[in-house]
Amino acid sequence: MQKKNGDVSMSHKRQAFAEEVEHLGEDNSSMAAFETDCGGDSLDSFPHLEEKAPSWQQLKRQAGAGANGYTGYKTDELGALLGDDMSPEDDKLPLDLDEPLPGAETSLLNVPSKCAEQAEEFVKKVWAAGWNVAHHHTLPDWLKDNDFLLRGHRVPTNSFMACFKSIFRIHTETGNIWTHLLGMIAFLGIACYFLSRPSIEIQWQEKAVFSAFFMGAILCMTFSWVFHTVYCHSERVGRFFNKLDYCGIALLTIGSFVPWLYYSFYCRLEPKVTYLALIMFLGTICIVVSMWDKFAQPQYRPLRAGVFVALGLSGVVPAMHYVITDGFWHAIDFAALGWLVLMAMLYIVGAVIYAARIPERIFPGKFDIWFQSHQIFHVFVLAAAFVHYHGISEIANYRLTLGDCIAREF
Ligand SMILES: [Zn+2]
């Protein structure tokens, strides 16, 4: 064999080297022969080969350095991936530069794709959590609110993003979310329209008084749909927003009383202030009671319904006051008593349905998604708020057509 010169191609050199190495273990004389054949050239005479073939240690170092900030892999972990059982001798194995590094195509080069896979897996989990639904018995205790709803429950997500995505999915809370989400949008629209009227049409006093009602309605609807959305986040988050939901009901009740009492006792300062103070006091008690952790537990459902119905029914006292001083028919015609009674009936019927959990109690599992008691209760609350808005608008119109307070009214 001719002595190889610099003009001999690399592939010939590699081929010759590889053939010789194959026989290394069998006969040391082969290496000697190879060295002789190559004119004393051993591996040392292929500096470009060694340069281009990185050692395993180098691979592991590079992989570790490159990946640490990317996937969180530690160098040791990558070492395991790359094969820590490689001996230092293996570092010097001749490698075919035209072929991918052994192991590299399944480990090192896959580091970015592993990251991509992990990211994809994470996104899938988040996305799946947004619509995964479960049977009631698989839920953790804190999510077992209504055992007559059997299927279609969301599982705990621990992710606000997953919770908010679930707004657009079908599960046991979809109806609860949308009834009050749309209610909030409706009241926001009405409030914007009312408050943007020119002052020649609606004076600022009217706007201020009606704002109490708009605030109560919008906050109640908002707390409600947000609570039903994030209820499955985690026990801590669910409990916090559940309390806000109850506060919202108390705020709606207080907000509803303000314009009603203001116009009903327009020129009678003493009863007006007394009843306003009373409803604020009772409303505050309701909010304080709502903060009690056990208040939200399923066994206190009738107590909750009772507390909020009692708060609403406290309006019977000023209503009776008005009937006594002004007469029943006057109250019907000019104090929108009929609308107020209708509103009260809607709240009460809604609360009874809520407490009794009808119809799912009668047909468990048949109203898991639509027409369950809580949705009906939400619709009744919404209807009652619209009726109340109509009622207080009538009282305000009547009162404002009378002009200023006259002496006989006190
Ligand atoms: Zn609700």
TrEMBL record:
- Whose protein is this, by species? Elysia chlorotica (Eastern emerald elysia)
Q: Where is this region: Disordered?
A: 1-61
Indicate whether Membrane appears among the record's keywords: yes
Query: Record-annotated residues binding Zn(2+)?
Result: H228, H374, H378
Q: Matching Pfam families, A to Z?
A: HlyIII (PF03006)
User: Where does this protein chiefly localize?
Assistant: membrane
The alphabetical list of record keywords is: Membrane, Metal-binding, Transmembrane, Transmembrane helix, Zinc
Topology of the protein relative to the lipid bilayer: Multi-pass membrane protein
Bias type Basic and acidic residues, positions: 16-26
- Give me any GO biological process, just one: adiponectin-activated signaling pathway
Q: Which family does it belong to?
A: Belongs to the ADIPOR family.
Q: State what protein this is by name.
A: Adiponectin receptor
Q: Which superkingdom is the protein from? A: Eukaryota
GO MF term (any one): signaling receptor activity
Keyword field contains Heme: no
From the record, give the transmembrane residue ranges. 177-196, 208-232, 244-263, 275-293, 305-324, 336-356, 376-392
Name any GO cellular component annotation: plasma membrane
Cellular compartment(s): Membrane
